[in-house]
Amino acid sequence: MNEDEALTPLFARIGETGTARYTRMPDGELLAETAYRIVRDETMLDGNARLNLATFVGTWMDEHADRLYHDSFDKNMIDKDEYPATAAIEEYCWRILADLWSVPDPSDVIGTSTIGSSEACMLGGLALKRRWRAARVAAGKPADKPNLIMSSAVQVCWEKFCNYFDVEMRLIPTTDEHPIMDGTGLEDVVDENTIGVVVLMGVTYTGAYEPVAEIGRILDGIQERTGLDIPIHVDGASGAMIAPFLQPELEWDFRVPRVQSINTSGHKYGLVYPGVGWVVWRNTAALPEELVFKVSYLGGEMPTLALNFSRPGAQVLLQYYRFVRLGRIGFTAIQLASQRVAQFLSKGVSELAPYELLTDGSDIPVFAWRIKPGYTDKWDLHHLSERLRIRGWLVPAYPLSGEQTDQTVMRIVCRNGLSRDLAEDLLRDIRTETAYLDELEQPMPEAGIKTTFHH
Ligand SMILES: *Cc1c(COP(=O)(O)O)cnc(C)c1O
């Protein structure tokens, strides 16, 4: 061995010639370059993020964003007093979102960044729960059995919210007649213990919008008949950054009076790398004050509300970069391009004999399809998923929710960075692999195929 270990060629060094699977901290040190290689190389077995069509989360930003990220990865979002400029930018961002979502009075609004929509949903749900409890206590009624209404197709964060914060989860099952929560049956499940209704702008399973305004009208009717005044939280993890640009006429946001709060994932169609979400309340009255803490800021105080304490500030700066770099015109151009790719792909898939579409990408740029019932018993979409994976594409197959769990669907999320060019290659590969499966004379083996995808 060389005296000067730095001279030893890579892959022949101490730490590389033995195992590098450390589950205990090693005793000694390694050269930084060697350690870097070990970690970097192990992750080569991960899928390629740009070909990951399962995720909604940003996998591409431009070089200036990368530079800004590099410049700011040492900023802790919670250090508002130490990094007042970053704290101010966080506020600009949620104010921009409040405006995009048609908040009635910009001088009376509150919001915050979070680590993602999951945390944002927890905060939205907590505000609903506290408001309900305050009203119940004021009326001298019991406040120990809160429930929250939502579709069976909600993202797992709502299951967590209900579990962690002791709220009964009342699911409206999706069915073939009602593949989204459209308000049917709402009257049968709400009661005086209902803290709110969660409406999805962008159902994770299929990309479809639930009709917020219609559900608002149904709840108005319920209030007229029963006196129950039930608020809405819109889970706009994906759609709240699409609808303002692609469906500006659609009334889903604070234009619907019952909507008290909206969350989105900055790292989904907000076009930022993983690690940022947002929640905004209609007005300060919608957020019970006891949930807000004060931290010192420029000698004064600043409100904060969050489940986390420390978290990266860089993603907030990246969000602001996206807002000022793109503006409304740029955001519209990007979301439209993603939608066109989604519609190009969904049309191509719908033209293949075995398939029928559940959605075509005209709500959010996401579409889902299934094999026509009774078409074949030789293969299913899990096999197609596996065949596409051989070619590098990560496209999930999974069961639907509610009363549709016997149906397997496949979904593609079209994001900024999935170019038309790549989409043409993907469609070619879907065609080729479908033809391969369709020509089989024997059924594909079941063994080894299991559902591993999680929403
Ligand atoms: C992705 C998603 C979430 C969770 O968002 P994260 O930012 O990943 O925490 C919640 N709700 C819906 C509808 C989603 O699509």
TrEMBL record:
<dbReference type="GO" id="GO:0004058">
    <property type="term" value="F:aromatic-L-amino-acid decarboxylase activity"/>
</dbReference>
<comment type="similarity">
    <text>Belongs to the group II decarboxylase family.</text>
</comment>
<dbReference type="Pfam" id="PF00282">
    <property type="entry name" value="Pyridoxal_deC"/>
</dbReference>
<protein>
    <recommendedName>
        <fullName>Glutamate decarboxylase</fullName>
        <ecNumber>4.1.1.15</ecNumber>
    </recommendedName>
</protein>
<dbReference type="GO" id="GO:0004351">
    <property type="term" value="F:glutamate decarboxylase activity"/>
</dbReference>
<dbReference type="InterPro" id="IPR010107">
    <property type="entry name" value="Glutamate_decarboxylase"/>
</dbReference>
<keyword id="KW-0456">Lyase</keyword>
<dbReference type="GO" id="GO:0005829">
    <property type="term" value="C:cytosol"/>
</dbReference>
<dbReference type="InterPro" id="IPR002129">
    <property type="entry name" value="PyrdxlP-dep_de-COase"/>
</dbReference>
<keyword id="KW-0210">Decarboxylase</keyword>
<keyword id="KW-0663">Pyridoxal phosphate</keyword>
<dbReference type="GO" id="GO:0006538">
    <property type="term" value="P:L-glutamate catabolic process"/>
</dbReference>
<dbReference type="InterPro" id="IPR015421">
    <property type="entry name" value="PyrdxlP-dep_Trfase_major"/>
</dbReference>
<dbReference type="InterPro" id="IPR015424">
    <property type="entry name" value="PyrdxlP-dep_Trfase"/>
</dbReference>
<dbReference type="GO" id="GO:0030170">
    <property type="term" value="F:pyridoxal phosphate binding"/>
</dbReference>
<feature type="modified residue" description="N6-(pyridoxal phosphate)lysine">
    <location>
        <position position="268"/>
    </location>
</feature>
